[in-house]
Amino acid sequence: xxxxxxxxxxxxxxxxxxxxxxxxxxxxxxxxxxxxxxxxxxxxxxxxxxxxxxxxxxxxxxxxxxxxxxxxxxxxxxxxxxxxxxxxxxxxxxxxxxxxxxxxxxxxxxxxxxxxxxxxxxxxxxxxxxxxxxxxxxxxxxxxxxxxxxxxxxxxxxxxxxxxxxxxxxxxxxxxxxxxxxxxxxxxxxxxxxxxxxxxxxxxxxxxxxxxxxxxxxxxxxxxxxxxxxxxxxxxxxxxxxxxxxxxxxxxxxxxxxxxxxxxxxxxxxxxxxxxxxxxxxxxxxxxxxxxxxxxxxxxxxxxxxxxxxxxxxxxxxxxxxxxxxxxxxxxxxxxxxxxxxxxxxxxxxxxxxxxxxxxxxxxxxxxxxxxxxxxxxxxxxxxxxxxxxxxxxxxxxxxxxxxxxxxxxxxxxxxxxxxxxxxxxxxxxxxxxxxxxxxxxxxxxxxxxxxxxxxxxxxxxx
Amino acid sequence: xxxxxxxxxxxxxxxxxxxxxxxxxxxxxxxxxxxxxxxxxxxxxxxxxxxxxxxxxxxxxxxxxxxxxxxxxxxxxxxxxxxxxxxxxxxxxxxxxxxxxxxxxxxxxxxxxxxxxxxxxxxxxxxxxxxxxxxxxxxxxxxxxxxxxxxxxxxxxxxxxxxxxxxxxxxxxxxxxxxxxxxxxxxxxxxxxxxxxxxxxxxxxxxxxxxxxxxxxxxxxxxxxxxxxxxxxxxxxxxxxxxxxxxxxxxxxxxxxxxxxxxxxxxxxxxxxxxxxxx
Lengths: 463, 279
Description:
By secondary structure, chain A is of the alpha/beta class.
């Protein structure tokens, strides 16, 4: 058989996209998608499916694509995932499905993520993903409350609505989508696409109540005892931003990545003053951290007009937790990587504005408990990296509100809700999953948890 | 959706709004706040709840027009109109108990959020001494309401056009120097006033709470924009506050942080507000 290489994804050129908020990746066209799909060997025992946290039947949908049957392809995906346009864009496929592809042993794996994205986009543009009411089970009269409308809550809602449950999602912000709306930037995940996928859930009968803060508007106990919900799924995510607790974090111009990204993504500060929410636009921006959020913040700062954007990370390139693709995109866009650099203090002027970060250079020592080589300070190597804006992207912890107002709900010492592998918590009928249980992770693992909890809730209410 | 049931101008550039918000009215407690986002292109802005009626399902807010967004949500909406979004109650409620004698200090529109707190302290059996202040007579807010829930009410104006001439800290200081036994002070108003109240009570070792209205986006702990230094520690005004021990708050830093968007605010105001002229 003629060996065909993996098809590249067309992208906006880096020199142009680094200054706009349009989507970076442009997606396959039909012909390329079909050609890429034909690379799939359609293995009798596909390993890729086991690499997908929601177990999409990958070879089957790819086979449909190879035959140009996109309507069947979307149906096959939607059996398992309610957010394919999102997952096709933000899943770390290289660590999941694609890492298991047989073609990857000697060459490049099938571009499963790009094909998923193509199918979802094609379906949306051609109206193939409209919900077929005949495929939704008749209402069974049981009410489920889902707390949080991020990927985990949406995935859980999708499964339960399909099974005939009356699902209400409570969202504290004014728009549904959670991190998909406030966190991941427009250029990586257009908000219109997120809203389209949420629209699909609404068509299945899912109610979304925005501006509802669980723990205040209603407590978990009230949802169960007074509001008539038979079960609750808590999917509030990792909301509370961490700071380094180094001097100077109070200076103006220092942001948590959450705030910076929320202003730009959810509140559309990049259109200020058309949108009324402002964001500070730095000339030299230092982003502390090496994960996907750090890459998102750095690339956003560049798009807002920064002259220099630095990633300040205390370990080396191989240890960067961000997806390789995102690191590559960031480099192409001119983000400068200050690796093996650890901030020790933020410096500022007399008016309280940040002027730089004092960093100490690091070298890699022995592997630590996580298997990553731990960085060790090089004595006396301190220097000041000039910056008029600093963005802290070093992770988030759980929001304490639900735990504070739900005394029977067990949490661990970090404040994460304790739940078993199916999401069951210490309270009967109350399930939890996603980042609120695991700490900050990925969109797709949160979706996987949502689906598992949905199955567990269904079992709990039908036994 | 949040319907404006009543809107009136109570003093120059200060509006009193009664909002239909049954879920918030049902649950809110003195000291808590809401966030309003009037339309998709506006800004999320926090406002402390000034009053509430659980039966009617309404909350009352006092909003001073200080920038584009406050102007937009007050002046571009009339009675009967709706804001798209209101969320709450947010933040920790005021600490509620019988302390003995409580002094409630309200400066400017800070009188409004002090009112439900003073009322609750009165209901709990405290002796409530209230001190309210404004720049001049015209700006004195809710004097009648405050009088009704206070054992004693002192009104101050900066220019002496009404009541005691001077700042709210003057009668407070006199009271403490005379040896009046004060068990608890709550002060809400401009940052500078709250700092001065803190300085006044500190030598007398009287516990003083202040309610901080910081820069905020989501109001639920997610963004970290509202962080304040309290006793050298990072605290989030939205979830740890808004009330903090005044003697531990770093007011200098708070005042600096309030200037974060000074330049952008002038851009907004320069365009004449949310006139949509940019479209």
